[in-house]
Prior knowledge:
The chain is an alpha/beta fold. The chain has helices at 25-31, 70-75, 177-184, 220-232, 253-262, 291-294, 307-319; strands at 2-9, 14-20, 49-54, 57-58, 77-79, 84-85, 89-93, 105-116, 121-127, 141-145, 152-156, 165-171, 191-198, 210-215, 238-244, 266-272, 300-305, 326-331. The strands form four sheets. A six-stranded antiparallel beta sheet has the order 11-10-13-8-9-12. It has a five-stranded mixed beta sheet with strand order 2-1-7-3-5. GO terms for molecular function: 2 iron, 2 sulfur cluster binding; dioxygenase activity.
Amino acid sequence: MSHKIALNFEDGVTRFIDANLGETVADAAYRQGINIPLDCRDGACGACKCFAEAGQYDLGEEYVEDALSAEEAEQGYVLTCQMRAESDCVVRVPASSDVCKTQQASFEAAISAVRQLSDSTIALSIKGESLSKLAFLPGQYVNLKVPGSEQSRAYSFSTLQKDGEVSFLIRNVPGGLMSSFLTGLAKAGDSMTLAGPLGSFYLREIKRPLLLLAGGTGLAPFTAMLEKIAEQGSEHPLHLIYGVTNDFDLVEMDKLEALAARIPNFTYSACVASPDSSYPHKGYVTQHIAPRHLNDGDVDVYLCGPPPMVEAVSQYIREQGIAPANFYYEKFAASA
């Protein structure tokens, strides 16, 4: 029996390892070619101190107070030379992937489908045998190489990996390198290279209500997160507000409806900023955040959208005099 451990490095790279029953995380990482910084292996120096963001584990009683205090252990800090996983875990490593002698993984796949969901949004699916080994945390992204060039673009997964296939929501940018390829040249079977996973924007262990705020194609990481929540369940209420500029920018509404049917305590709403919109809910995302969604601060807020939206939401929450328990966000901007 083994457990999967996600190691998140400070440069944004994530690598997954398998830890066998009774094996320390440090030993499991070393066995798979990743050197988490450590000196003693005996729980005495504290050099391998990391932070466990999710999962169950045993630290034993052999480490010393100077290496890891009781208060630190209570907060979730661990010594990887002593940590033995009892479930899948997510561990934040305070060192770069380069220092730990690893790097982001690279995968080869082929286009399985390209769909123009609207004038502004393209859905891309890629599939390959190598992707069956691809693991990522819902919300993370990869760098997709644009065929026929040496340039890459970053896109969040919009689905979980299933049978070696993953999908993305891509903004159709006029003149954009990836957009031009997808709208003019791409066809099923074309090869694509992706590198990752990357990013610190991902679904954490759900300990309180969630407020999810998506702008445009920033919806992508949330549909992946919601797929995961649909699989594992949640006892806490979840609400998504999805904001776009124009009516035609609203996509994947059927997917949100299907997810709402699968997740009993999940609700969502959408809004359109354009004053010419015929959609029932108009305005910006901040105009549709109700006091109950902020739950007097006992809420984890996840936000993915363009920089102006991230700044507007941050300012709005500050103006309410409420400090969320956690506020995770991802800014993105289109590349020409």
